[in-house]
Predict the structure.
Amino acid sequence: MAEEMRVVLRNYGKIDPLKIDDYINAGGYKSLEKARSMSQMDVINEVKKSGLRGRGGAGFNCGQKWTFAYQAQADQKYVICNADEGEPGTYKDRIIMENDPHSVLEGMAICGYAIGATKGYIYCRGEYPYVVDILNTAIAQAKEKGVLGNFDVEVRMGAGAYVCGEETALIESIEGHRGEPRYKPPFPPVIGLWGKPTIVNNVETFANIAVILEKGADWYAGLGAPSYPGTKVLTLTGDVVNKTFVEVPTNTTIRQVIYEFGGGIAGGKAFKAVQIGGTSGGFIPASLLDTQIDFDSMAAIGATLGSGAVLVMDETRDIVDVVERIAKFFEHESCGKCAPCREGTMRMHKLMSKVNQGKGTAQDVALMDKLGRVMSVACLCGLGQAAPSPVLTTIKHFKADYDAKLQ
Amino acid sequence: MANVTIDGIKVSVPDGSTILQAAQVAGVRVPTLCYHPDQAVKANCRVCVCEVEGQRLLQAACSQPVYDGMVVKTHSPKVVEARKTILELILAHHPQDCLSCIRNQNCELQALAEEYAIRENPFEKMVRGLPKDTSTPSIVRDPDKCVLCRRCVYACSVFQSVNALGLENRGNHAMVVPSLGKDLLDSPCVMCGQCIHACPVGAITENEQIDEFLAAVADPDKVVVTQIAPAIRVAIGEEVGMKTGEMPMEVFVAGLRQLGFDYVLHTNFTADLTILEEGNELLKRLKEGGKLPMFTSCSPGWINFCETFYPDLLDNLSTCKSPQQMFGALVKTYWAEKMGIDPAKIYSVSIMPCTAKKFEASRPEMKDSGFRDVDLVLTTREVGRLFRMAGIDFSKLAPSKFDSWMGAYTGAAVIFGATGGVMEAALRTVYEVVTGKTLEDLNFTFARGMEGIKEAEIDLDGTKVKVAIGHGLANARKLMDQVRAGQSPYHFIEIMACPGGCIGGGGQPLTKANVKRAERIDAIYVEDEGLPLRKSHENPEVKVLYEEFLHEPLGHKSHELLHTHYTPKNKKFL
């Protein structure tokens, strides 16, 4: 029987998140102190050696990212915590921030020290006003205690745009512009917020930092899958018995997540599909359930780990109908900057709608397949590149569901 | 240097070059749509995507820097599929009324559709169905045709600092819209038309008035008189298959007669006149402690800009009307009288490089002759269309001279068409008036060229005058902010709304790149050098005008006909 492993959520339920002393008594801010006794490069090397990869979705080596920002010469650098948790079905960052806000602040401050930044921003989802209150309380306490030293943190709220979870759109939003992504390169660690080197990491990524410095890179690198070590906080939704969150090592399989942690399919029904990583995640059929959830294993089956949302669908679910709704979501959330996403998400929704209404033809499905293929390689940012993934993976794995609706 | 392979061709390019630049070196043309040579990279149309060996994602050639050892395929099957699909998506959202579009055969989207053999579009045609914006007399916007490349937004905000165009909504509902207003007239738009040059398609165009011209020449009761602005000759050839500057003036005049103009006169005449009026106004302000620095007032886009953004500095503007409007006021008074023509019958058409001139001519105060001073303004592009419509073969056309009394001009008037030209022309005259000496070297070269702001201190026999020249309204803004802050060291400032001056005006043959502007400027100075008279005060017909009609610069008649006043615009933009 697989077991939960609480690394990120190490203090969950054990401390009062609104009391900094609770966090300190649990060993909090010791890693920051330790980091400050090390050289900046030693801190970065420790993070690099741990193998920690970004928990926001792209899975880039965290220490490597920090190296770029460290090496960039600038009079100011920034640390941004991406708390714009906009993926439907995902609430892991909220759990972390609600229950252990200081673990995020500590991770950010360590990053700030390592790259040479004295200013940090937490870009928090607009739908989480109460989380903003918790964060502001934590920041005020940390400032009062003086634990952050010369590192200043400020909370900025999003206004509901999904695309602002994309790091460069998030930066544009903080700068007061339309929430639209920038082309890359240059990447934010070189040219980021207000043109300065900037590290944007996810809440969960930052929550991993203090414990890596405390217990060491080797310890961390030994957890879970070697290519994507550590744990992952997953949020289980849909037709699963236990609709809850779990933190598991990354070598856990999808089957274990659904059947052992999730308690299987609700109502004694049969499994149909699971979508992992949020709305833009691929749909996974029963035949692939023994895949490990780590980034590379998921990529190998054309899926993503993404944000760690796990949406389980039972045999009664209409896959085509679900995907149409997803296509509508992307049409609504496209920022409109690049042509293939602006036009493509709208067309995809139109075509999905036509097929779902029983008016589609095999040519429509073929066109969606081509459009999705083009979008996934030609769109400007991750939103447009990932948007067709539910369409493409369901055409691949659930073709019969489409065929049943065609004219 | 980075060694890069483009479609199997090995090239060595400087570090930091983009794939697009490397491809140019390799002699491979990568198609683009949102890319503009003088603007920052946008990478939003994705038409230029290429395949880079070892990468899953296609990369935009305009934004992706090369690295040593990079292997690029610019037209692999994967690339062609992507480009074709993107073009199909854009086209399906476009009216595709190419035959009746003003940009027919001169449209970047149309050219791409042709190159990529777009035939049956698998995506259903869906046009937004938005109304055209015809609120200004200068510019027409057709939002249905907009491809969201944002080149107009960049031109308006970065080159011109006007910010009349912005973005609204998101996703498929995203639109370029007039900022802070329901339409362009209600926005801070100064009608300079730089957005037209930036637009790859027919989404922003001049307010075309060809039909009004055709109706006028068809009317036997009308005496149709034209004036040609200084910047037209060097550029009009581009509209009829000639090189920049290649059209001889007399052949151009002959072509205009073919179009049905009864008299062909020259705005250069009133450009020379402007120098006498404006030069004397400057000297008067210097002597009598008038408002300084004095700003030139020839450029109607600039006047709109000043009225909109610097209403507190309107007293610094020269009260001289622009040469177009001086001409308009004189042709229905002085010239009509001299020619014995009833001014009520005169239909005054000006040929301008400018869209803002259409607005200027429609200003309510511009009827000092007792009639509408200028009845119709045609841009260079519209005249180009009329020439093509008339099927004129310029190589076989016998040259023709300008008609009398408002057709003579000097080199000083010719250079009005380029940034710095009004300043140089003014200095040629002011120097001789103040010092009483003959100017040895007429070439004030500091005033020439595409540098955004140019300045100099001129020694007028002991009197030192500091002057500055700005072109493009973002440069004007810098000079104006200095004046507003009380820190301007200058006595006299020339501003032209458009980059490069009138040769880059919003009505000129479509000019995507600044190198074309520089070419036209070169042609302007070649013309100036070749003229026997190069100082405005030596213009023989201007001398006659003062002797017989105006009597003296800044005199009673001048004030009545040649000078104007300015009005602050809507305060919401300040």
User: Anything to note?
Assistant: The mean pLDDT of chain A is 97. Chain A has three domains: 20-221, 225-314, 319-403.
